[in-house]
Amino acid sequence: MFLTEMYDGFVEPSAVSTLQGIFYTVISLLIPVIVGLFKKKVDVDRDGERRKRIDELIEAAVADVEQTYAGDLKKRGVFNGLEAKEALKRAADLVEALMSKKLWTYLRRKYNDPGKWLRAKIHRYVLEQKYERKQAEYSE
User: Fold this and answer.
1) How far apart are CA 58 and CA 51, in angstroms?
2) 70-82 pLDDT tens trace
């Protein structure tokens, strides 16, 4: 309608009608794409916030288990594979206890076995900490 008024007398009415149809089709296709891109950006931001919160919980749990369980065993020289597994289990249990229901639901939706994923993430964090300590020792 607005194109007909704008180009009155310059363009054939059938051409204006065709252009309007193309214009409305393109707009109707672009709106869901733009909305989808915006939603994806918001979801990515939320995922980043959730992963950051999980990392913070893991860091706190590992520090707590190190202080209350593993550190004492290491001082006595009896920290072996069984104790390492127990320390990992305690850290995972602590993270689960500290985690909100929403965060746990997010993990359950994202991963088939969030407990297994969490233990692997904690194990990787511990290995990274060991590596960083070794690097610090070698650089001194």
Assistant:
1) 10
2) 888 888 888 888 8
Q: How far apart are CA 7 and CA 79, in angstroms?
A: 85
118 in Cβ contact with 97 (< 8 Å): no
50-102 tens-digit pLDDT: 888 999 999 999 999 888 888 888 888 888 888 889 999 999 999 999 998 88
Residue 8 is classified by DSSP as: T
End-to-end CA distance of the chain: 77
Closest CA to 126 of 61, 78, 48, 50: 61
Q: Are 92 and 115 in contact (CB under 8 A)?
A: yes
Q: What are phi and psi of 11, to 5 degrees?
A: -125, 145
Tell which residue, 65, 64, 99, has the closest CA to residue 85.
Answer: 65
Give the residue from 92, 78, 84, 80 showing the smallest Cα distance to 120. Answer: 92
Rounded to 5 degrees, what are φ and ψ at 112?
-65, -45
The closest alpha carbon to 118, from 131, 129, 107, belongs to 107
